[in-house]
Design brief:
Blueprint (H helix, E strand, L loop, with lengths): L29 E2 L5 E7 L6 H8 L3 H4 L5 E6 L3 H10 L4 E4 L1 H9 L4 E10 L1 E6 L14 E4 L5 H14 L11 E4 L5 H7 L4 E5 L2 H8 L2 E5 L11 E8 H6 L1 H20 L1 H16 L5 H8 L2 E2 L6 H13 L20
Parallel strand pairs: 2-3, 2-4, 7-8, 7-9
Antiparallel strand pairs: 1-2, 4-11, 5-11, 5-12, 6-9, 6-10
Length: 336
């Protein structure tokens, strides 16, 4: 990556814009001016991606990558932009939701999931005064998700279809679906533009603290709420096949970050608050982070079977035209 992302002030609590220049080859990253390798890691400014924040703040990749390697970071507003950067070689690895990884893989992207970042963290919030007391009340209501067919959207729509028989207008159903950045959901609740939201943390806890909405369905009761990786660590098949030692070094750095979170939750929370402030210009309170943390399990372990079940749900909801086969997507050899 030869230029940094522009970070916009978030008057409306929006996330950063995605912008990236051309990088080096997908097989290894740029050569920096002194002849050393340059590796770029990507992640989102969400609590589910704290491993990326910790790795950056504690400079953990420098402990595992070969001497002379320069490590840079790139921040993304959504999974599509992240996956494009992986495919073009602008980044060599990083954290993304399982939905974008799965969708791009089934569309022919040569990528591998080599670990997880976390599980949990998706919450269904209802706007106060929207007259929504239970999921059955969602008929005729408008809900928002980050993107059509994203991880949080699939979790919500799977639950609504399987448990309540309610679907979105995308398939002729009774819920209206719109999309927007999670950091804006509180303001959209305040203005009454949407009635409910399928929200990644910490933005659900922001809504709770500010009082614009309430929990309709908590993490443990959302489809795949506690088993599905909320974030997976992705790299290219080219790197896995041709530079497995480099991939191992990258994954080892990610494992160090995850173990740091597990062993030092208080410091990890401070890092999350700091990095989210730097990236989004939104300062979250310690109480918001504490609340969000309770809904998340930070782990690098990944279960291929759960991802396949989730992919099947995406097909059932007509986000995917063909029934997906994720054989070859997950490679756990680097975390074993």
């Amino acid at each position: 990556m030869k230029r940094f992302l522009s970070i916009i002030a978030l008057a409306a609590l929006s996330l950063v814009l995605a912008a990236c220049g051309s990088s080096g080859e997908a097989s290894g990253g740029d050569e920096s001016g002194d002849g050393s390798k340059e590796i770029t890691i990507g992640y989102f400014p969400n609590i589910n991606h704290v491993a990326g924040m910790v790795a950056e703040e504690k400079d953990l990749y420098s402990e595992t990558l070969p001497d002379g390697t320069t490590v840079k970071y790139q921040y993304f507003p959504d999974g599509s932009a992240f996956m494009t950067a992986i495919e073009t070689g602008d980044i060599q690895g990083g954290l993304v939701g399982p939905g974008p990884a799965m969708n791009h893989f089934t569309s022919g992207a040569e990528i591998n999931v080599v670990g997880a970042g976390s599980t949990g963290g998706t919450v269904i919030m209802a706007r106060k005064d929207a007259n929504i007391e239970s999921p059955e009340d969602m008929k005729g209501k408008t809900f928002i998700s980050p993107r059509v067919g994203c991880t949080h959207d699939v979790q919500f729509e799977t639950m609504m279809k399987e448990e309540y028989g309610i679907t979105s207008d995308r398939t002729g159903g009774e819920m209206k679906h719109v999309t927007g950045k999670p950091a804006t959901y509180h303001s959209m609740f305040t203005t009454g533009n949407v009635d409910a939201a399928t929200v990644p943390e910490p933005w659900a806890s922001v809504i709770e603290e500010k009082g614009s909405g309430k929990v309709l369905v908590d993490t443990k009761d959302v489809a795949y709420g506690e088993t599905l990786p909320a974030a997976v660590f992705v790299t290219s098949q080219d790197l896995v096949e041709n530079k497995p030692d480099l991939v191992q070094s990258i994954v080892d750095g990610h494992k160090k970050a995850t173990e740091f979170i597990q062993d030092n939750p208080a410091e990890a929370k401070e890092i999350a608050i700091k990095k989210i402030k730097e990236i989004t210009d939104q300062e979250l309170s310690a109480s918001v982070i504490d609340n969000a943390w309770e809904r998340i399990n930070f782990t690098y372990e990944v279960d291929a079977e759960v991802l396949q079940e989730f992919a099947n749900s995406s097909h059932d909801l007509e986000f995917l035209k063909e029934k997906p086969d994720l054989e070859g997507l997950v490679d756990t050899s680097f975390i074993e």
